[in-house]
């Protein structure tokens, strides 16, 4: 059995590991932690050292096997926090597991071998968690990127990397990781994956993948969460937002879980969402300016906007909203997973 | 009678005045335009030249007396657009009027004389529109700021300006304008205004003021909008958001006007809102990072977040969300006005 | 004869055209102006509306045939200013002419037809100015870019544009324009141009081209400046900076013109330079961070740094330093042209 | 005797401590390190986590008493690097010492008690280094700032902090630290310090102080460097730049040390400079835009510009250029210290 609990705590900075202090009250210890997923207050882009700082701080205190998913960017109302995923020896309603791929060679970043490495690791984690594919609601993947040095090293070794733009490499890595999730869960076939990689578009997507990339890691780290069919006090479900303002999908998912838009009903424990600027430059047919703003990257825009919508409907700014939803939900939208505590 | 119509059009750039082409279909002409309120795609801060460009383009085509309120900043999903306020010779359900103060001497910017100048002009516009104070739902004010040159000129003339920080001067000007609106409509007394100016806090607020500042003007330009007690196809109402994620207030106002969160019921024609980073650094008790982000000004964060929430609930990204809500609604929140077209 | 004078004036904003007032003292009039080259205080990137505003203001007052080169970005010590290039009926020491290509179809932007259009127009301007190729010291080109709408329109018409990244399109347009200059002046052959376009690298460069791109124009506008072999009070020369800190090249060029690093000797009237982040990520073997800074585009970094060096050595912050030196001088460096007034 | 050596190494990231590997070749060990002064690749402003990350990495490997001065911001050509200050048992030509104040209570940050704490600690370090005041060429001080939480805590405790603006608090802390240096070295009297604090201006300055502030520390950490009157292979001297483009002062200081602008003569080992936007908005009478750029903080502009000038004249981008020169050199300028290795 792989029952897990979510322990969420606001953080005072990227290196704040005080969430650990909450474990004792649950009768749990640091050795029970299988993952930490945190929002840190950097820009979420190439030069976001808040992620590196957070990863270092958590590595210093967590078991070696624990996965650390640091997602930079708390734009707008989003609030920095850390969520521990902790094994619990009782039925919680949630099941989960974490795992890591071997280091991804820089030459294959964004390419089929990265997809396959992620797919294998996701498959192992799903099995380890004792989850059926249909009960999986979230697969968080933290994946590497290309730095200027990586690009130079690839070329020196005679390989052209998938892109020479360091920022673009973050997108390509997220894309490959998302396709790996889709492949592992049967959402997409290998042929569809190859076609998606060749076309470069985002039409082949996973409905549960949430991938973020950062300079602080060399492998892909995976966290799988899903519902225990046997039930329990926590309930989880997911949907996809079809665009960045899909309030209808949020309200439906809340209703499905017995929670209301103004805090009534079941208490929302956490929300995990992806956000991105629609690649066609439009939201509901209206021009957005996220892709032509040279002062502010589009992922920062998108997190702020989707974070505002979700925080309003959920009533809590401590949400995991991550930018860059390539192949994660439909273009311009993204997956959304909610966890609630059933009212007693 | 001062019935007005709102003619809203997406814009291809700050200098796009094609909204004028929509007037003919309504049987109206450019001479009927009393104001234009536009969102332009700049940063909404000191060096936002999209506002200057927009103002210049509109000045070239509108009647001299028309007020041009250019509000910079279409962060996140917000979409650049222009809204013409046009006198109509039939009952529309809305009444409105515009007016301008004399130029505000830089030495009194942010001080009581600016408050009084705005109050007088608002009073005149309310009377001109034939509105009772309780029927006023929105007072847009565009007001000047201090540049580095203004600061130097003040000091050369022997006066210490209200602030020497050009960005801060935008807030002080908005604050004085909002207090002028509150004074004109009886929301606050002169004593309360003096106390608010002395204290520097934002606790004395107007529930209908929406003020923005820009380098392109020297006077304060005022647009008043409200409900025609005799009714008509358009209906208007207002409320205040108590914080940046006050979905409950939005949903209540939509319900009051017969519109639903997913586009059902009455069609939402427009929304006018103010947004700001809560000055105590918290949203619902959670730390936000808008005030400590040295890469991105807090007004940009706040517009993106509130714009995301409103666009989701209203179903349209062409909304007027303006940053910097000092004395406009409660600290961290802001006024919200909606206009709907009653379903027939 | 095509003698020209440079009339440089600090500007109070992008729409400040007061430089015209200086013409009378020279006995010249607005009809004598063949071009204006200005530095405006925007970000110099895709969403720089200071350029659009400046272009609009100058178009309203200059002869229709005059070329307006608005270059955004006055980072660091660089100071906003406008330089009029004015035909003078006496020997000044400088010769110049301006001309424009037809509108560049968006489908060929960054491709050989843009190169050829620029080359033809440069050739005409050089002939018109009565310059020999070896006396040309500066060819300013203002060229268009691709917006999100342009990309969509290209694809709708069945053509894949040279890039779908709006920011990248600025570089591709500058690159094609620079190759056009090199082709016109015999610096490169047509075969070398084709090879450079195919390879995408910046090794085939012009030593006198200074190209900038902006959303406000659809054609390429060209200004050619060079030395009158017959001499005169103004003297001009050019060199290339081999990297962004090539103080040696600046000092040599100053010495060649009889000017010293601390303001002694001949008075420096103007400097025109290009700046860019070295594409290999290194300056003198040291890592720079301009290409991995997701908060600040590399062209802003580069203008600030090169502007600091030049302003120090020239003793004046009103310099024309433009970002993005693709195919303009060696990679990481760029052309530099100086104009001095010989001491009498 | 307190002879010290400077060991400078380029860094691959803020947490790169490989500079330590260079010690063995000098016959020195990690226990000999008294300080590290590094430039890290963050924004150098409030939310610069590259400093926190660097400080954490160095604390993990250096002796507890070693001072870590992490200065964020490598704009333009500036290159991330770390400089170890190491005690050497032979005559190097340099003397130095480091020391720290007790934690500075947040309520007195930017006020006289911070000045006095710094002055006492500087005095002790100067004595410890065996330096005469006239031989001191550089006093690096790293000092704390106010976060939003600090401001709230001060007010909760009944004290109004020196400012409520977190960014402004960085300037006030640097200012108090610089006045402490000036007081310790006899550059300013206590009365002048009080007057400077009361006036808030920057006219009372130190010619050797280089202060930077960061969220990662609570005390003020001091490093003093100066010339050994007995001489040695390293030579040090200092001057002040009177504005941000004072090439003349740089060239004079280079000449004084026997080094030339193009790398001839003595090898420049290191340069330490402060940079800031002139508070009057002018450089040599020309308007700069650093203080009205709402997208980019003025300290980032200033570091880029001054870094470009110095890197050009010194021939190396691995320079310590720190932003915010309040009371450190004349307004708009700043102190500059150079270390060269005499040619043999």
From TrEMBL, chains A, B, C, D:
The enzyme class is: hydrolase
Give the UniProt record's GO annotations in the biological process aspect.
atrazine catabolic process
Q: What is this protein called?
A: Cyanuric acid amidohydrolase
> Which key words are in the record?
Hydrolase, Magnesium, Metal-binding
**Site: Important for substrate specificity. Where?**
299
Q: Segment RU A: which positions?
A: 1-90
- The catalytic site is made up of 142, 212
Extract the ranges annotated as region (RU C).
234-344
**What does the domain comment read?**
The monomer structure is formed from three repeating units (RUs) that share the same structure as one another. The monomer, the active site and substrate all possess threefold rotational symmetry, to the extent that the active site possesses three potential Ser-Lys catalytic dyads. It is possible that any or all of the three active-site serines may act as nucleophile (albeit only one can do so per catalytic cycle).
The family annotation for this protein states: Belongs to the cyclic amide hydrolase (CyAH) family.
Query: Known catalysed reaction(s)?
Result: cyanurate + H2O = 1-carboxybiuret + H(+)
**Biological or metabolic pathway of the protein:** Xenobiotic degradation; atrazine degradation; biuret from cyanurate: step 1/1
Q: Locate the residues binding Mg(2+).
A: 276, 325, 328-330, 333
Q: Could you describe the subunit structure of this protein?
A: Homotetramer.
Source taxon at top rank: Bacteria
Listed binding positions for substrate are 51, 71-72, 174, 212-213, 303, 322-323
